[in-house]
From TrEMBL:
GO terms for molecular function: hydrolase activity, acting on carbon-nitrogen (but not peptide) bonds, in cyclic amides; metal ion binding. Its cofactor is Zn(2+). The keyword Hydrolase applies. The modification N6-carboxylysine is found at K150. This is Phenylhydantoinase.
Length: 478
């Protein structure tokens, strides 16, 4: 059945205007004022923005990590995402040395099929590059539409790959049109700092942060950029937390390199003192890279505002406080890294960004949705509101006031990382390809309704206009 969203304020990365939106067959079929369509279900969006659905470029659902498995899987995780205004997630498909890449991808399809309530894609982790993996990648890009590869520069003896693997991945990506993503921390030195801390009897959660200083994030970011330049390739740095890394990215971009960066809501709003909470509560705030001193937050906001960082990922990776985080009660290095953020990403960016005057509405849409669509081969099917685009839409009340809490969130995990934070604005209804997933704040979606997304190859040209709009004239000059 057709749907007609009336009287909303349509906001994209470039425009903001009052209009009605007609949806037919899951696609936006008309945008204009005073639209009528016989037999269409009419949805009144008076007083609300209509945004393109959020795209979360960084999730870990149903992921084994740190001797346990994330609490939220593709069902609970995507339900929570939808409540929060996100209609697409791109999850990391983990691989291990010696296991064929195809079988890792099959494992991720098995985890997600029949469960996801919104559309989803995969990035592919690269743990080693040899003749075998090299020969598989072109077909994986072509058949699976997996056009982004992830290389970990940290988590020694677990996920960490060496610089040679990163360099070769960058070369393959350049040749076949993929984007290389890095977790940028110097894992070798961190490993030594952890051993030193434990040997000195320092086992509390705060030592997680103290053994992962921001200099080592800046160093790894710079190293990845150097290798990208040598390979004449393209790089996306995930979860940027600090001034050192943001500056390396900005400097590379000034030189015309195809380097992009993401930050996360936790790094914009929480700081390292959270890890000092008593009774082991600091473990709730263990992420890698760690939370930083508060002054880094304004540097990250500046980088988002000026377009030096392009996206906000949740890095959703949820573990219960009781029964999972406490694996590290007597050794901080055994605390599973990560936190529950998928549901609050969109609202935190709106509230802390737009409502507090740090970014414009258009920048909000760009950061929460459009840039990810462009970087990861989904635009213009996703990431905007245009005739012919998927009707992935969020009807958002900008006046609502609420408080983030585990009492009310929809993630399965037993705490909320932003507990007690007041936010302005709330998604009221969320549609995925024209079907309600959230209707008047109630979940009405169906596990399995989410479709796997085969994504287009990396297209640097698609990124230039939005970046230009955000004050950059140098992007695309390479
Ligand atoms: N970030 C984090 O602490 N956990 C998830 C895995 C990763 O992204 O490094
Ligand atoms: Zn990471
Ligand atoms: Zn992550």
């Amino acid at each position: 059945m057709k749907k007609l969203i009336k009287n909303g304020i349509v906001a994209t990365a470039t425009d903001i205007y009052e209009a009605d939106i007609l949806i037919d067959g899951g696609i936006v079929s008309a945008i204009g004022t005073g639209l009528n369509a016989e037999g269409a279900e009419v949805i009144d969006a008076s007083g609300c923005y209509v945004f393109p659905g959020g795209i979360d470029p960084h999730t870990h659902l149903d992921m084994p990590f740190g001797g346990t498995v994330t609490k939220d899987d593709f069902e609970s995780g995507t339900i929570a995402a939808a409540f929060g205004g996100t209609t697409t997630v791109i999850d990391f498909c983990l691989t291990s040395k010696g296991v064929p890449l195809r079988s890792a991808i099959e494992t991720w399809h098995a985890k997600s099929e029949g469960k996801a309530v919104i559309d989803y894609g995969f990035h592919l982790m690269i743990s080693e590059i040899n003749d075998e993996t090299l020969s598989q990648l072109p077909a994986i890009i072509a058949d699976e539409g997996i056009t982004s590869f992830k290389v970990f520069m940290a988590y020694k003896n677990v996920f960490q790959a060496d610089d040679g693997t990163l360099y070769r991945t960058l070369k393959v990506a350049k040749e076949h049109g993929a984007l290389v993503m890095v977790h940028a921390e110097n894992g070798d030195v961190i490993d030594i700092l952890i051993a030193e801390a434990l040997a000195a009897g320092n086992t509390d959660p705060i030592y997680h942060a103290l053994t992962r200083p921001s200099e080592l994030e800046g160093e790894a970011t710079g190293r990845a950029i150097t290798l990208t330049e040598l390979a004449d390739s393209q790089l996306y740095v995930v979860h940027v937390t600090c001034a050192e890394a943001a500056e390396k990215i900005a400097e590379a971009r000034k030189r015309g390199l195809n380097v992009y960066g993401e930050t996360c809501p936790q790094y914009l709003t929480l700081d390292v003192t959270a890890l000092e909470k008593p009774d082991f509560e600091g473990a709730k705030y263990v992420w890698s890279p760690p939370l930083r001193e508060q002054w880094h937050q304004e540097k990250l906001w500046n980088a988002l505002r000026s377009g030096q960082l392009q996206t906000l990922g949740s890095d959703q990776c949820s573990f219960d406080f009781k029964g999972q985080k406490d694996l590290g009660i007597s050794d901080f290095s055994k605390i599973p890294n990560g936190g529950p953020t998928i549901e609050d990403r969109f609202s935190i960016l709106y509230s802390e960004g737009v409502a507090k005057g740090r970014i414009s509405i258009n920048q909000f849409v760009d950061i929460v949705s459009t840039s990810s669509a462009k970087l990861f081969g989904l635009f213009p099917k996703k990431g905007t509101i245009a005739v012919g685009s998927d009707a992935d839409l969020v009807i958002f009340d900008p006046t609502a006031q609420r408080v983030m809490s585990a009492e009310t969130h929809h993630m399965k995990v037993d705490y909320n990382a932003f507990e007690g934070m007041s936010v302005t604005g709330e998604p009221v209804s969320v549609l995925s390809r024209g079907e309600f997933v959230i209707h008047d704040k109630q979940f009405v979606g169906k596990p399995g309704a989410g479709q796997y997304l085969r994504r287009s190859r990396f297209n640097q040209a698609a990124l230039a206009p939005a970046n230009k709009l955000r004050g950059l004239s140098n992007v695309g000059s390479r």
